[in-house]
Structures are given as C-alpha cells and as structure tokens.
Amino acid sequence: MKNRFRLYLLRYIMLLTALLLGACQPAQPPAKIHDGAEILWDTWGIPHIVARQDNDAFYAFGWAQMRSHADLLLKLYAIARGRGAEFFGENYLAADRSTRLLGIPSLAEQWHEQQDTDFKRNLIAFSTGINDFARQHPELISDTVKAILPVTPQDVIAHTTRVMTVFIAGISECGAVLPGFDFSDQPAASNGWALGANYSGSGNTMLLVNPHLDWGGLETFYEAHIVLPQVNLYGAALVGSPVLQIAFNDYLGWTHTVNPMDGCDLYHMKLTGDVLDDGYWLDGVKQSFSVTTETIQIRQSDDNVASEAFLIRRARQGPIIEHAGQILAVRLALLETPLLANMNRQWWEMGNAANLDAFQKILQGGHLPLFNVIYADVDKHIMLSFNGIIPVRNFGDTAFWRKPVTGDDSRLIWTETHSYHNLPKSINPASGWVQNSNGAPWYMTMPFLDKNNYPSNLAADVTNNRELRGLQMLNAHQRMSYAELITAKHSTRALVADQLLDDLMASAHTSGESSLQQAADVLNHWDRQYLAESRGALLFSVWFEKWAERTITKTIEADANYVFLPEQLLGDLFYAQPFTPSEPLISPRGLADKSLAVSALRDAVDELRASANELDMPWGDIARLRRNGVDLPGNGSSTELGVFREIVYEKDEDGKFKSSSGDSYIAIVEFSQPVRAQVLTAYGNATQDSIFEMGDQLQLTADQKLRPAWRTLEEIEENLAMHEHLIPNSSINQNREPVAR
Fold first, then answer.
1. 265 annotated as ligand-binding
2. pLDDT digits (tens, 9 = 90+) for 47-105
3. How far apart are alpha carbons 211 and 208 in whole angstroms?
4. Which entry of 98, 127, 172, 190 is annotated as an active-site residue?
5. Is residue 322 exposed (0-12), middle (13-18) or buried (19+ Cβ within 10 Å)?
6. What are the structural domains of the chain?
7. Strand 206-214 vs strand 665-670: parallel, antiparallel, or unpaired?
8. Can you tell me the distance from the alpha carbon of 228 to that of 670, in angstroms, rounded to the nearest whole number?
9. Does the bond joining 578 to the residue before it have cis omega, within 30 degrees of 0?
C-alpha cells in the first residue's frame, strides 16, 4: 500500500513535468512531496529515476550503476587512479604507467576544483550514491573491489578523462605507444543518422542512434531514464559516467559517432647527449626535461605488494615515452587545455536543452574531446556537427602529422584548438538527411561538403564500405518511414559482395577447377546477407580475409616500406575502380587482381574443408551471440564487408565465433507528439548478478528486434520489477565530499 501511494505521487510528478514541458514554459518545481529520489526498475533492468533536484538524480544514477555494474565500475575507477596493478596485479601495470605518465589523476584534482558550485554538488551526489550503495549492499560487491572504496568526485573525473583519452589515442598514432590506451583489435565505430521533415515519411524528424563499441570493459553502455521537473531524459552512458552521453528528451535528441579527427601527435625528440638526463634540443637551444617520480604498487600472485619507482619526464611538447628505440613526446589536445574539465557538465546541459539555438550555444563551449554530434528536434531541425578538441596546426596535412614529427622545432608545438564555428557542419540540408559512419566530415550529406574549405590536417579523408552502404540506403528512398528506418538499421547486406562477387564468380568458373566452380555456385546462391540462415556468408568472409591478406603481402613484397592503412581497402590495390567521391553510390567496384582473388578463394575452400565446415554452412551456425551462458545464432558482420548491421565476431574456444563488439546501444527516435522511440542495449543492462538477468536482451539482438522505450509512468508501472526510494545522506546537502583511502 505504501509503495502504491508513492507511485501515485510519482505519477503526479511525471504528469506535472509533462504539462510543464508540453506548455513550453519555464518549469516550476512541484510541491515538496518527499526528499530524495525514486528508482523504478523495469523488467529489462532499466532504472527510471524520478527526482525533484538535479543532485538527487545524480545520487540515484550512481546508486543504479552500482546495482547493475558495481564490480566493473569500481575496477574502472581504480584503473583511472593509476592503481589497477595495486588491486588486480601486474597485468594492469602498463595501463597504470600510461595513466600516471599522462597525469590524469592530478588533472582530475585540478579540474574538480574548477567545477562550478552546482555541478560540483552533482558530482559529489553521484559518488555518494555509489558509496551509499556499497555500504548498504556489501553482499552485492566482490571482495576484490571493496578496497577501492570510497569513490570520490575526482575518481569520476579521472575515469571519464581516461575513457576519452583512450578514444583519442585509439583513433590516432598515439595508441600504439601508450600501453593500456589502445583499443581492442576492433576500433570504436558507429552509425548515426538524422532525417529531416522533408525526407521523413511522417513529416517528423527522426534520429538513428547506433554506436558500435566493445561488448565489455570501459566501453560498456548503461541505459537509463531520468525525470526531473524540467526534463524527461532517456539515453545511455558508458559505465562510470555521471551523465547520459547519448540521449533524447521531449524536444530534441542527439547521438555521437567516432570521427576521424587527430587529437594527438608524436614528436621525435633529439637528445643533447647519450642519455635522457642530458636534455633535448629545441630551436637550437638545450632544454632540460622536467622530472617527477611516482610510486606504483603492484599486487603479486601471493597477495603481497611490491613497489615500482616510476620516473616521468616531460618536455615542452608533453610527456616522454621510449618506443621501438625512439624517444617520443606525446601531445594530447584534450589534456593540454582546460576544456575537458567541463565535459560532463556540457553533456548534462545538452540533455536539458529544448531547442537548436540553446543546443548550439552549449556546443560552442567546446568541451567534448571528439565525436560527431548528430541532432534532431521537434521543431523539424536536423544537424551534424563535426566536433572535438582539435589542434590548430599551422602547416602540414594529415599524412604529415600521422608520423612522429621532429621535436626540435617549436613551431610544431601547437597551442590553440579549433572553435565550434570553424568546424564542418550541416544544418537542415536540401537532401533532408545527415549521416556519419566514421567517415570524413565532408561526406555527412549529399551533395558532399567541399573539403577544400577546411584545413588539410583537420581530419583524414576517409570513408568505409559500411558508410557507403548507408549512403546507398538513404539515396534509395525519396522519403523514409519509421518502419523503413528500423529495417535499414538492421540491414545485413554486404556491399563488398555487390562490388566484387560477379568478378569473383566469373573468374572461379573460368578456372576449370571443380572445387572453385562449386564455391562459385555456393556464392551464386548466397543472398549476400549476413542473416543467421544465410548460406555462403561464411565462405565469402573467409575469402575476403585471405584476399586482403594476400593483397597486402604482395604490396609489401614489392615495397618493403609500404604501411597498410585501413582506408586503403577502398583503393586501387584492391579494386579495379577505386572509390571516387564523385561516384559514391557505384564505387569502388571490380577486382584489381583476379588471379590473386581466385587463389584466395582456393585457400578459403581448403580451410573450410579442413575444419569440417561446409561451404554453405548457415552463418548463424558458426557466428554466435554469446554472453553469460546465452548462446544464439548470430547475424551481422564487420565494416570491412560493408555491412551496416555491424557485429564483430572473434574465435571462441570451440572453434566457432562469438560476438565481441559492434551494435551496442540502439535507439530509433521520432520527434512526434508524443515522442516515440524503440531501443536496445544489445548485451543487456547489467554485468552484476542482481534481480535482473545479465544478457537478457540478447534474444532481441538475435531476432533483429528493438523494444519500446518506456517513458511514461503508466508504461513503467505495467512493467515494474522493483521500486527503490532513496534518501541521500546529509553529506550532499552539506557539500561534504568522500575522502579516498
């Protein structure tokens, strides 16, 4: 009875919120009902947080993340302190060194002091929610992570800083020299579309949210819903973030895609002597490194703790690292300016915006270190803004800056970053849509932007077959309905098959080899899809991998200095007609070397037969969606094959392939009245055993289905799994902060 009464009170709060928002008037707080916040947990494990004050919502968000991901969250915070090895052993030592080298813990201390009063209280509330959950539910937390407690606001800032630094390093040359800061074998990727009123079948703008990240670790998404008197906000954040980073409200929404910006440079330092202590040359003048020493604790296998004195040298360009016999300085733009200090606040303000003007004013702060911002709103506006903390480099193109530049010329030490106004963007284009799937910014709509209007070192001039497949689907419609948008999002058609398969089959048939003719017949009957039932997809995947490997090997044999870059997959090494921006819908196409392709097909046939796999084995028999004991037939494939529905598989112990990255959080949003949305967190919303099943959304992933986003109290009540009423302790109101151990 008591809980039911509280639900009625919550209904009043949410109704009042809806009325205030719907009237487009400044929201007034409801009459005081009770202190704290409510979390209504639905049957998918999504927390619906209802609060009167921002800091109460932050408190509840910290609490909710602990219930769903306590062990993961605390582990990530320990690593962000540069203390992973202290708690988890020597495997984390390299990451600790990089974290300390870049000064992330000390920056977090500085940036915490720079927060404005209100947002500092929010960060305190978030960390207090984490600590209070740990104190009240110790049975839900592993013993191995309890020593990390308590969490501080500085931990939150350090973690979100480290995550963004990993992203920046991972898409640049810096990832190769910073151990623990490189992505897994599959780099972060994403699809994002915004459809305008003149392209949408309903006349309402629509938004496709579709990041592709690793299915674990610091790239794990957490789906949540936050209701305050002034906003009804739904979206997702990476675990450990205090704010939703991709979200929509009743007025607008946005998603992010990883953009090919360069936010990190390497400098080849010229020493003045034989050892580092002698210093380095800069503009013909001898300079000394600044030197500090930090102590890193390392847990041993017997649980004893050893210590390492870690020496950190810093030049004008940045911290020094020895790599492959070179002395390099690392310069990361997001760590060299104070802009990142307000990153989390900017995301929170974006979620509270109500129109394009307000949203753009927030973006002008320039606090997000990377990502395209793809936007749609109820006022029929769409936008794509290429975004990031990007250095202003006075000369040199992307190829020049991709390699280590000389460290003895101060003209190469950039100090400024590009403003929001100078970065590429498209607002309400004539095409009726904007899109990005990790390509260069000039491909965001059609006709393409003129890349000559931007500095040649702003972004790499790249695209990929997944993006070209998206452009095909967008151009195939004069208008696109909501249902068609969902269908396009799940498309598993392999664009590479359309580009190359006819040449390959013809060459295989003319070879006169029966095994190759049989393979050609299998490929001829293949539907060119990566559905669970698709026969021939496995053969094509194995052929493609061997064809790419043989092509690269052939090139290296001819030129020992050749370095393969992913964007070259669309070039003349592989295709008879390489990608041409003037023909994006029909290029690239045709095999550059048909005999090499046939040889790769022969190898693919031999490999499948040797492993007792049939040439026409259904894709879902070998590609499996696996997580926490769930094992389902897979669908989708990788960017390289031009599949829009990206799910990447890696070899498992039984010889099959398990899902490891790709489609993560998905949302299809239509800005109708009311807003409607379908969503999915592909691998589920928890890694922690609780009242929710881990990986419970994986069946929907297998079925290529989404679920409705429940945003009204009636919907939530009908699907309620648990209800919590939280009353934060007095430390938030008194602005006291947790003290780290």
1. yes
2. 999 999 999 999 999 999 999 999 999 999 999 999 999 999 999 999 999 999 999 99
3. 10
4. 190
5. exposed
6. 2-187+222-242+704-733 (1.10.439.10), 265-335 (2.30.120.10), 495-643 (1.10.1400.10)
7. antiparallel
8. 22
9. no
pTM summary value: 0.94
Q: Residue 447 and residue 449: Cα distance in Å, rounded?
A: 7
> Which residues does 502 contact at the CB level (< 8 Å), separation at least 6?
none
For residues 387 and 192, is the Cβ–Cβ distance under 8 A?
A: no
Q: Quick one: pLDDT band at residue 188, thresholds 50, 70, 90?
A: confident
**What distance in Å separates the CA atoms of residue 670 and residue 436, rounded to the nearest whole number?**
19
DSSP state of 30: P
- Cα distance between residue 454 and residue 437, in whole Å: 20
Q: Which residues make Cβ contacts (< 8 Å) with residue 179, sequence separation at least 6? A: 94, 95, 97, 98
Answer yes or no: 190 catalytic: yes
Query: What is the pLDDT, as a whole number, of residue 448?
Result: 98
Token digits of residue 598? 């046939």
Q: Which is nearest to 10 in space by CA: 677, 719, 724? A: 724
- Residue pair 45/684 in contact (Cβ under 8 Å)? The answer is yes
SS3 110: helix
Q: How many C-beta atoms surround the C-beta of residue 511 within 10 A?
A: 18
Query: In sequence order, what are the residues at sequence separation of 6 or more whose Cβ sits closer than 8 angstroms to the Cβ of residue 292?
Result: 311, 312, 314
Q: Residue 132: beta bridge partners?
A: none
| Model confidence pLDDT, tens digit, residues 425-452 | 999 999 999 999 999 999 999 999 999 9
Q: Tell me if 704 sits within 8 A of 5, measured CB to CB.
A: no
Residue 687 falls in which region: left (phi positive, over 0), alpha (psi -120 to 50) or beta? alpha
Is residue 340 helix, strand or coil? helix
* Rounded CA separation 741/663 (Å): 38
Question: Could you read off the pLDDT of 463-514 as tens digits, one per residue?
Answer: 999 999 999 999 999 999 999 999 999 999 999 999 999 999 999 999 999 9
**Helix (H), strand (E) counts: the chain:** 22, 30
- Please report, as a single letter, which amino acid is at residue 222: Y
Do 464 and 438 contact (CB within 8 A), yes or no?
yes
Q: Which tokens in the block code for residue 695? A: 């990986």
Tokens describing residue 87: 């708690």
